[in-house]
């Protein structure tokens, strides 16, 4: 789904969002409440400049509009794979973006993520996944690593990984598998404005992903291991 159609389905004509290259930023109104909109489009590769621009948009909201809810719209192919960005320390820039979102959360801003197109790798981790809750459209594409790349990294034969992916969501790409693992809270079908309204009314204050993953059968051990570590 293109971002203009998404915003129209979420807010009708009550939005003031601009597209600056691959950056989306602006505001929108829902039931008389103004939301800050920050996101990406065009399968954006998150490089140094785009990471800083998103961080700036979040910080501007924290500074000028205390408590305003922030909706992160996610469409990214992950971090930009260029030598320049690596030499400049893209990991630090993306970490800075994540820290700005965490600052907003600690200052009382509800932060929601919505994957409306594509979400891959580190670009997803420091945007949608770091939100209080991340939802997705059913047609979205989500993955961290393709099976061929996973085979090269893990030294496990790709055919074996394909077999594992059939029964274990941890090995498999796809938005349904991220719901099963708890990374995505829910899929938004039908009335998107109603889904957003419900998400704003039920924004979690604690990280519930491991618990959701256990209850949905996608990550059976994460919640228990986290509990045991906390109690140790």
From TrEMBL:
Transmembrane segments: none annotated. Pfam families: MdcE. One of its GO terms (biological process) is carbohydrate metabolic process. InterPro entries: ClpP/crotonase-like_dom_sf, Malonate_gamma. Gene3D superfamilies: 2-enoyl-CoA Hydratase, Chain A, domain 1 (3.90.226.10). It comes from the Bacteria. NCBIfam families: malonate_gamma. This is Biotin-independent malonate decarboxylase subunit gamma.
